[in-house]
Amino acid sequence: MHQVIYVSAATQLFSKAELLQLLTLVREKNQRLAVTGMLLYKDGDFIQLLEGEESVVKQVLDKIKVDRRHRYVTVILQNDVESRLFPDWSMGFRDLSDPGLQEIPGFSNFLNASQPSEYALNDPNGCLELLSMFKPNSRGGN
């Protein structure tokens, strides 16, 4: 099983409706490809964990890198793991604009940084911990 975490900036802010439309398409595609993961979004910045067969995950990442909706795609962490972190989610999602999420113990503020990709590169395990907070059956997950 292969896992990739990347951060990127949207070329323009997504409305709630646009995010929902994107998620619907991504979830259908990921289900067909047996890719699971979690997507976090805040004010035009994304952090995403993708997991699945290595060649498939790399193909998905390559498509994201050329997607006109993304810029500054930066891979933070890439490794092989024994099992999926999000085995039942074709793509979990949280909009981190919700102030209530910041009350979760251990919540990372890195998407509030002026350069999220630099912050994330300096703390890839912190990114993994942030994404893990939203795992089903963990505090804050659903």
What does this protein structure show overall?
The chain is an alpha+beta fold. The chain has one domain: Alpha-Beta Plaits. It has four helices and five strands, in the order βαββαββαα. The C terminus is likely disordered.
**Tally of discrete structural domains:** 1
- Overall 3D form: globular
CATH architecture: 2-Layer Sandwich
Largest sheet: 5 strands, mixed
Order of helices and strands: EHEEHEEHH
The CATH topology assignment is Alpha-Beta Plaits
Instruction: Report helical residue fraction.
Output: 25-40%
Q: How many strand units? A: 5
Overall pLDDT level:
79
**Low-confidence parts, pLDDT < 50 over ≥5 residues?**
104-108, 138-142
Strand order in the largest sheet: 4-1-3-2-5
Indicate the CATH class: Alpha Beta
Would you spell out the secondary-structure blueprint of this structure?
Elements: E1 2-10, H1 16-33, E2 36-42, E3 45-52, H2 54-66, E4 70-80, E5 92-95, H3 116-122, H4 124-132
Parallel strand pairs: 2-5
Antiparallel strand pairs: 1-3, 1-4, 2-3
Condensed summary:
The chain is an alpha+beta fold and 142 residues long. It is 33% helix and 27% strand.
Keywords:
5 strands, Alpha-Beta Plaits, 142 residues, 33% helix, 5-stranded mixed beta sheet, globular, 4 helices, alpha+beta
